[in-house]
Automatic annotation (TrEMBL):
Task performed by this protein: NDH-1 shuttles electrons from NADH, via FMN and iron-sulfur (Fe-S) centers, to quinones in the respiratory chain.
Top class in the EC scheme: translocase
Domain NADH-ubiquinone oxidoreductase 51kDa subunit iron-sulphur binding: 324-369
Recorded catalytic activity of this chain's protein: a quinone + NADH + 5 H(+)(in) = a quinol + NAD(+) + 4 H(+)(out)
Name of the featured protein: NADH-quinone oxidoreductase subunit F
Natural source organism: Planobispora rosea
Length: 428
């Protein structure tokens, strides 16, 4: 499996890729609006599409949870908050191909019987917000949004809403609170958003890439999509290679491709260096090492090896990187972004940060390794939302694979990489 499968990224090279002219007519939306709503849901179920926002929940099944004939308004909310360290696929997708998202919004809203949709976009990315506004305006002008779309009698309004720059607002229920005008903090589940979501009404929340994949499924058929990827992780996805790679960037490929294959296409690790560790799906997914180069990047295979596919944010670190420093930096992020609602995460991330700063400076002791593992054990599974669990991933996995590197710090009373930044360090 060494080929790329550009679908979402196919027209990114066109100078006008972000305009309606560069994207083309909304043929898939037109086709979908001529279908029965349940047939649209069934097509997405049959395709095997799983959520591209991290957890991999089957998209068609999520849509099927929306109660019908309940007399309440239904909503679609697109999660475009993308704030996880390393994750960088939705923002370029919305910059280069916003119409695939808008067309996906129309098809999804129609299927779940929603007449109002929202795109909740990360507040810092003003350029993306402007581009989304322009795409939505073009779609309204073409008659693809608003009243009686394609003469089908179906009406849809779409609002682009900018968040205020908090990682926790990517968590789907915190996002809903933020969208309603409250402070963004996770809600207790159940009830799940499909039953009581935005304004206590049935709501589907999906990731940008999930929704943008829908037009291609409707246009080409469920079998076409299911024919790519693996049996349980079907289709294609955007793999974002960043860090110490010769050609970092977005590589759209079938799920199940390996890092070795992706690195071959990306020109390998930067010249003269070798792979030390990497994240398969952003900083919340346990790190891998060079022994995992041939793990198929699908939900099941990555899980079987002790990590998660997450958002396919492949952050690559070579032997010049101090793993303790990388983990300290990620932990500082989690401590900063913890919303404070629950004690294990609020207190735990704070103390993890303090101990890691000490360890990185070479001022720790072997007991500190037990302390960070204990703190992480008390966060994992005891936090109110997945932010807390995610904060423990770098801790547990780095101690597992690089214990010797932690020990070396207090043996020499400092960071070995400060003294000799290019020293080649073993993988423990
Ligand atoms: C702290 C935190 C941040 C998250 N950030 C995002 C995000 O930026 N984008 C996203 O799609 N999902 C994010 N998620 C996952 C969402 O809660 C949710 O699972 C996802 O939007 C569902 O979409 P999908 O089924 O299409 O993957 C985050 C979860 C947590 C716990
Ligand atoms: S786990 Fe962290 S981010 Fe999530 S509710 Fe608790 S304090 Fe807030």
């Amino acid at each position: 499996m060494t080929t790329l499968t550009p679908v979402l990224t196919a027209n990114w090279d066109r100078p006008d890729s972000f305009t309606l002219n560069g994207y083309g007519e909304y043929k898939a939306a037109k086709k979908a609006l001529g279908m029965d709503q349940d047939a649209v849901i069934q097509a997405v179920k049959d395709s095997g599409l799983r959520g591209r926002g991290g957890a991999g929940f089957p998209t068609g099944m999520k849509w099927g949870f929306i109660p019908q004939g309940d007399g309440k308004p239904h909503y679609l909310v697109v999660n475009a908050d993308e704030s996880e360290p390393g994750t960088c696929k939705d923002i370029p997708l919305m910059m280069a191909n916003p119409h695939s998202l808008v067309e996906g919004v129309i098809i999804t809203s129609y299927a779940i019987r929603a007449n109002q949709a929202f795109i909740y976009v990360r507040g810092e990315v003003l350029h993306v917000i402007r581009r989304l506004h322009a795409a939505v305006r073009e779609a309204y002008e073409a008659g693809y949004l608003g009243k009686d779309i394609f003469g089908s009698g179906y009406d849809l309004e779409l609002v682009v809403h900018a968040g205020a720059g908090a990682y926790i607002c990517g968590e789907e229920t915190a996002l809903l609170d933020s969208l309603e005008g409250y402070r963004g903090q996770p809600r207790l589940k159940p009830p799940f958003p499909a039953v009581a979501g935005l304004y206590a009404c049935p709501t589907v929340i999906n990731n940008v890439e999930s929704i943008a994949s829908v037009p291609s499924i409707i246009a080409n058929g469920a079998d076409w999509f299911a024919g790519m990827g693996t049996e349980k992780s079907t289709g294609f996805g955007i793999f974002s290679l960043s860090g110490h790679v010769t050609r970092p960037g977005q590589y759209e490929a079938p799920l199940g491709i390996t890092l070795r294959e992706l690195l071959d296409m990306a020109g390998g690790i930067r010249a003269g260096h070798r792979l030390k560790f990497w994240t398969p799906g952003g900083s919340s997914t346990p790190i891998f090492t060079d022994e995992h180069l041939d793990v198929p990047l699908d939900f099941e295979s990555v899980g079987a090896k002790g990590s998660m596919l997450g958002t396919r944010a492949l952050q690559i670190f070579d032997e010049t990187t101090c793993v303790v420093r990388a983990v300290m930096r990620w932990t500082e992020f989690y401590a900063h972004e913890s919303c404070g609602k629950c004690t294990p995460c609020r207190e735990g991330t704070y103390w993890l940060k303090q101990v890691l700063i000490r360890l990185e400076k070479g001022q720790g002791t072997e007991d500190d390794l037990t302390t960070i593992t204990d703190i992480a054990d008390n966060i994992l599974g005891r936090s109110f939302c997945a932010l807390g669990d995610g904060a423990t991933s770098p801790i547990h996995s780095s101690v597992k694979y690089f214990r010797d590197e932690y020990l070396k710090h207090f043996e020499i009373g400092g960071c070995p990489f400060d003294h000799a930044p290019s020293t080649v360090w073993g993988n423990a």
